[in-house]
Amino acid sequence: MCILLVWGFMGLMTSGCGSFIFNGGPTTAQNVFCWKARTGKTAITYYLEHCFPKFAFPLHPQLLVPDTIQIPIEDLRDSRQKPFKTLMSCLRRALTDEALSFWVAKSFVGFTNFPSSLTRERNFIEDFDFDGRFLKFLEDAYTSLNSGNEKDWLKQMSKSKEILSEADGLANKHGLQAILMIDRIDEAWDGSDKSVLFLMALMHACIEISSQATFFRPLLFLRENIFERVRQIDNEFSRLETCVISLDWSKELLLELVERRLNLPFNTRLPLGGETWDYFFESTPTFSSREKVFVYCQERPRDILTYCTFAVESAQAHLRPRVTLEDLEEAKRRFSQSRLKDLGDEYSENYPQIQIVLSRFYGLGKEYTVSGVDALIKKLLVDQEVQRFCQSWIYLYVSPEKFIEILYNVGFWGIRNEAEVEFRSMGVRSTNPPKITGNTRVVVHPSYVDALNLQDAIVADLSHELSLKEEGIIIDFPQEYSMDGYQSKLEQLSVDLKSLEKGRPGQSKFEDIVGEVIRLCFYRSLVNVETKVREVDGTIIRDWVASNVSNAGFWERVRSRYQAVQVIWECKNYDDLKADDFHQAAYYMSRSGGKFVALVFRGDIKNHYFDHIKRISLETDGIVLLITEKDLMVFLRQSLNGKVKEAHIQGIYDKTIRQIS
After folding, report:
1. Residue 414 belongs to what domain range?
2. Is residue 522 part of a domain?
3. Which residues of 579-608 are buried (b: 16+ CB within 10 A; e: fewer)?
4. 320 DSSP 8-state letter
5. DSSP class per residue in 97-152
6. Does pLDDT of 302 surpass 60?
């Protein structure tokens, strides 16, 4: 377990892989930090919210890049020009209003305490969430900019600074602070260049807020691969780079992380520092199980915990009192398959469907010469699925040097230097691989060898008759779909949802779209999806019901907590929910089917909706989860990119629980 001294308190971190922009803190001066490391960024948000319930609150933007405003990408590339400054100003104002909204919701301050300039902001604070507020500011500002009305544009830019200044004065007067934790950015964007530019503006807005206000510290949590894309395009990246520090896990801290997990169920706990590990894991004088696990997992905390979990489960299955060397070997294949899936998911925003390229290594060799890499690239470029689903990036890396670089950067390949193999280190270090020459050999990392069934061979060439395989790899789809059909269906659903008319005329079509989203985006956990399901007496008709068969993750927790063996989805093709909609959802809950209902609608979530959910929770011990149209688009976009995580719907659930608890 990692311990970090931040803001004058000891912060206890947990496992994971992530990064965040970290702007100062309540008791520090004006320092601005960026923490990019394998620390479990979402776990950190939970911990900070627990430690500072009066100051810390999360924000998960759903509309960071709005489709309704057409801003040419080239206009945003220079951070010193008006379009980018406009975007940054709108974000700064929307973030400031988010802090004011938090104070009002917590009754720390009322609108009667607001100075006149902030009182005029009341409508945006009360009636808009962050996404709606940002969209409104952006529409007004760009209308002024594009029409050439410089006077109005300057007025709006000044308004943003004025609100931040007035909020700072209000905070100092009443002793208020705000720690805004901006997380799960990758769920709200499509990985395009435009998305990166909007993210870049958000980073600069966070830095400006930190430098101009003493009460407000926005923390922007990012995965490393997303941060690297900003590094590549920001012409003022030095402003961000001077705010970056690296937090790496040492072997001692990794060992303590595992040992604390092993000790957790016991009242009397073994000493840390190696004794606990040696008690649970077998080693020999010539073989260190600890070293094997740490090296095999590249010293990544989440991977180490996953590998150890698989090994412990193997030992339990064989009724062994300790994890033996056989258990470690048995866990390798299971871990290798898990790690390969995670790799494709982790870089889906940078390289959509990269798992298709990785799957083509199946059954080949562990090492490649430059000529072998060149032969592999030629086969990939004539592969129809690679052409269809990886065309947005694969043609940028057709030279062996570029292809080696990309797979080195994602951690799949290492570069052999004489007898040693150098894999990319984690953290905020250079992603450039060692120098590549004609004699260079690349090596697949051992953690992917078992999943890909690689041979102990050096690939120098591939015959023309050889077909690349993909048996048993990481790509799975609903049974009735091929890869091409699955992608086409998801794309069509996205188009249909955007163009669908709201209200009664489009109700039936909206229900059909929601049903397809359930089938195509949650097919690993929800099966036997059925529409218009009636009770035996015919008095209750539910739009969609799906059987919950998940044995892990979000849906498994839903089944355990709410006895939701059946998940009910109710669809409303309009923006504003009414009290009757919540009564209807509560009526669907039962002891036999479960007490979990997903209520899908077209608008934005309003604060008073949580009053209804809280009442239902108190009366039935159930939960109504609100799913918006923007959430449906996120599910579709993630499935298009090959992302299989449940973090987005987990985030919706977490927000709901926090609002009603």
Report:
1. 361-459
2. yes
3. eebbebbbebbeeebbbbbbbbbbbbbbee
4. -
5. HHHHHHHHHTTSS-GGGS-HHHHTTHHHHHH--HHHHHHHHHHHHHHHHHHT-HHH
6. yes
* Count of structural domains, the chain: 4
The predicted model scores a pTM of 0.67
Contact present, 109 and 118 (Cβ < 8 Å): no
> Is 162 in the same domain as 288?
no
Under 8 Å between Cβ of 574 and 503: yes
Do 470 and 361 form a contact (C-beta atoms < 8 A)?
Answer: no
pLDDT tens column, 642-656:
666 677 888 889 889
pLDDT in tens, 344-399: 877 877 788 888 899 899 889 999 999 999 999 999 999 888 988 888 889 999 99
What pLDDT is attached to residue 248?
Answer: 66
d(CA 638, CA 348) in angstroms, rounded, equals 8
Quote the CA–CA distance of 70 and 563 in Å, as a whole number.
45
Degrees to nearest 5, angle at CA 549 with 493 and 316: 135
Q: Which of 630, 657, 523 is nearest to 129 (CA)?
A: 630
State the alpha helices, DSSP H only, in 288-426.
Answer: 289-296, 301-317, 325-346, 354-359, 370-381, 384-389, 400-409
Question: Between β-strands 596-601 and 623-627, what pairing exists: parallel, antiparallel or unpaired?
Answer: parallel
Are 528 and 547 in contact by the 8 Å Cβ rule? The answer is yes
The whole-angstrom separation of Cα 479 and Cα 527 is 11
- Parallel, antiparallel or unpaired: strands 623-627 and 56-59: unpaired
Question: Do 118 and 274 form a contact (C-beta atoms < 8 A)?
Answer: no
Chosen domain end from 459, 475, 502: 459
C-alpha distances out from residue 381 to 374, 393, 471, Å: 11, 12, 19
Tokens at 620, concatenated: 């039935």
Q: From CA 214, how far away is CA 505, in angstroms rounded? A: 51
Q: Is the torsion defined by CA of 143, 145, 146, 148 positive or negative? A: positive
| In a shared domain, residues 576 and 492 | yes
Rounded Cα gap, residues 585 and 523, in angstroms = 23
Give yes or no: residues 139 and 274 share one domain: no
For residue 171, CA distances in Å to 48, 208, 221 come to 20, 17, 24
